[in-house]
Amino acid sequence: MNVKSVFLDLDGTVLHDDKTISKRLADVVTELKKRINIYVSTGRSWESASSYVEKLGLEDLAINYNGARIINLKTKEVISEKPLNEETVKKLIAVSREHKIHLNLYKDDKWYVENAGREAEYYSNLTDIKWNLINFDDFMGKKSTKALFVAEYKRLEEIKEILQKKLSGVEYVFSSEYYMEILQEGVNKGSAVKKVLEESGVSKDEAMAFGDHWNDKEMLQYVKYGYLMGNAPENLKEVFDKEKIIAANNEDGVAQILEKLI
């Protein structure tokens, strides 16, 4: 395999279930980054992802918010951001209030909530960051990098049906069984990977990526070497060829593949 760039999802992929990075993976990344571009491509904010990027010793670019934001790791300059517009944000807030469902909004890499209940606690524990509690009236007239609803999967599906009647120009993606994310139309990890590759002069046939959930699908399908983790949802596995499904995150599936590049 002639691989020049590698894109790594974090949760359920690079990270074990206890949110640690194995020494095995850290060692192989340390060796490969001497000659291969390695990037994190995650749904997390930079604030939430930064400690893991630093543990991997990556210093180039990072894709955050499922492709809605790309930053330069050396300067922390935002290279690209495609947020939800003000009207979409206004409608999302209205649906959240009317149907009493938890909503996260994001601006300038900060996470905002209107209610600091168990959903906020759950999200905070998984992402290692703390919310900013505000009245969403103060968010009116502002853009949001993305939006995220937290609830049981069945409830999220119901909210999606409601939103589809009210919104246009957006993407819906389930990034876990409890998260439904709303992104600006055309925004996903695949489109962000395409931008990074084009600007670095690397072909998608020279790129590899790893992910474990529906928010990784476009990225994995865009590059030649796209690998789905063995811990991915069963209905997502049906979309991929068996040879592209690898060992689970807790079994160091990513490290097993990357070691073949050394």
From TrEMBL:
**Gene3D superfamilies given in the database record:** 3.30.1240.10, HAD superfamily/HAD-like
Q: Which domain of life is it from?
A: Bacteria
According to the UniProt entry, its GO molecular function terms are: magnesium ion binding; phosphatase activity
**Keywords associated with the record:** Hydrolase
- SUPFAM superfamilies per record: HAD-like (SSF56784)
**Cellular component GO terms, alphabetical:** cytosol
Q: Which InterPro entries match?
A: Cof (IPR000150), HAD-like_sf (IPR036412), HAD-SF_hydro_IIB (IPR006379), HAD_sf (IPR023214)
- Does the keyword Hydrolase feature in the UniProt annotation? yes
Q: What PANTHER family does the entry give?
A: HAD SUPERFAMILY HYDROLASE-LIKE, TYPE 3, PHOSPHOSERINE PHOSPHATASE
What's the protein name? Cof-like hydrolase
